[in-house]
Amino acid sequence: MSKNLNKLLIPVLSVILGLVVGAIIMLVFGYNPIQGYSQLWNGIVGDVYVLGESIRQITPYILAGLAFAFAIKTGLFNIGIEGQLIVGWFAATYVGVVLDLPPGIHLIVALLAGGLAGALWGFVPGILKAKLGVNEVVVTIMMNYTALHVTNALVRAWAGKDTSERIHETASLRIPAWEEATMYSRMHAGIFVALIAVFVIWYILKYTTLGYELKAVGLNRDAAQYAGMNVERNIVIAMIISGFLAGLAGSMEGLGTFEYVATKSSLTGIGFDGIAVSILGANHPIGVIFGAVLFGALKYGSLSMPNPPAQIPEEMISIIIAIIVFFVASTYLFPWLKEKFTRKKGAN
Amino acid sequence: MSFLEIIAYIFYNALYFAAPIMLTGIGTTFSERSGVTNMGVEGGMQVGAFTAIIANLALAETFGGWTPWVAILIASITGLLFSLLLAIFSVTFRADQIIIGTAMNMLAAGGTVFLVKKMFEGRGQTPMISETIHRYNIPVLREIPVIGPIFFENVYITSILAVVVAILGWVVMFKTPFGLRLRSVGEHPLAADTMGIKVNRMRYIAVMISGVLSGIGGAIFAQTITLDYSHATISGQGFMAIAAMIFGKWNPLGTMGAAIFFGFANSLSAIGPSLPVIKDIPQVYLYILPYVLTILAVAGFIGKSQAPKALNRPYVKENK
Q1: pLDDT, tens digit, for every residue of B90-107?
Q2: CA nearest A90: which of A69, A120, A113, A66?
Q3: Nearest CA-CA distance, residue B273 and chain A, Å
């Protein structure tokens, strides 16, 4: 009971602490935190346009966070969400441009292409971990930059320039009625894809044999092996599904937000933010939704902070998100503080 | 260009690209050998690059030609302070090292650009520095036939510095009692503890070494290559340093070799289009070469790269 309470209490405390520390930083640098936070709030829910855009930003965050949370259930650190996302973005857009399919089917095929490209990018570290015991953190980091350069080369080879054509309408996630209703924000149907993915992952983890085995492998590899589970296969499956989710996150950008793919000079950051999302959500599928809503909204809302009168650089929010992660990750911090506190009391 | 000139050009390009990666990579060999993954070196390089550029801009009038060196010194201190985040949160509070490293990178990326905007009226990019690190001809050594013009003419002194640090790092790590203690803490902390070695203190020191070197690495990168600071100044060099450390098998000299090799790949991709044979290789292969080779190395296809055994595990004294 108290363990479950802690699970909830630590993220909530961390978010509050993060916002407080953020306010102190704003004060120190001569900004007005009340103006800052109220502009932030208005930048998230102030009108239908920003609300639509906030939801748009939350969408890939849910999928990226889910990708990290799923892999970590099997004890795997998927730092490669960035790379899986980038290849997914490319593959989904490619299918969206070159194929001619009926509406609906085209979208599904494009989403699958994005997911599968991400799955392929997740398969490599998965199989290396399973068969050779190679540390997945190292491989996924390297796969990130490999993905960046490979997709840049592919975009140039395919489009002949730094930006691809736009995808066909049949493959688009955009809903004209929503766009009109939200003063032409780029909000798209991807949010449903993300929520369905959350439900499916939650179901797999909670009610299927596969989910049971994946969690068993994550909790104790040797025990799972001894119980007759195929540990190697489970590791590969976990990385494939995690990569698939990351690839879907990229498809959200390719089929919804931008409707094209362009060369990039650096990683997108969504993958790393996904790690923060998952950590805040206690690596639980439902928790991921809350993590994504908070961080996605903060990230989009921050774009309003540089406006007068607050005039606070939007990077303030990256600082706050980082601080929140520091607190949430330090599972030992709160017991440590408590111990120090009670010991002092005892001495008196 | 004559053949020798081309070779010399490729070499010094490779060396000057390699120096910051080498220094940062050597730092990570120390922290990882003690059992602490420092994914935050990307952020460390950002902090170093940022402070070096700001210090350079502020102090150029006072120190003239010495400015870049003063800036490097200051960057080494901010790099050290930044790395304390990893030490405090992962070693003392036992937070996951990879998560904390990721958070450090977020903090550095956001924090440095935040400060740039605060200092330069909302612009996300600093002005260019006027005092840069110069190239030198090393006397005497440059007279050596063939090698002289390649290694000792027109070199950044920072490249030489990086090589010296690599050799020193190797000596400290493998030939001193301190190095032996450091490695024992990363391989078997419980055994080290029973021998009276203070595990967490060693880890703090190792993390701080990597903080100092990543700060210097960032400072050198910014003052030789970009000459200003913005969000795009450091983008992936820290991760490439981690790649160099792994490809170099957690050994300072190996890391040096790997960094120079990665520098070569980069240098070739820059000059490639004007060279026969090389120009037929699509650039993308040269770009991804460091990463692909590192994957092959950890997978054991190119020698065996073995990580320290206690890597990523906080040491808890009570657990016997």
Answers
A1: 999 889 999 999 999 999
A2: A113
A3: 16
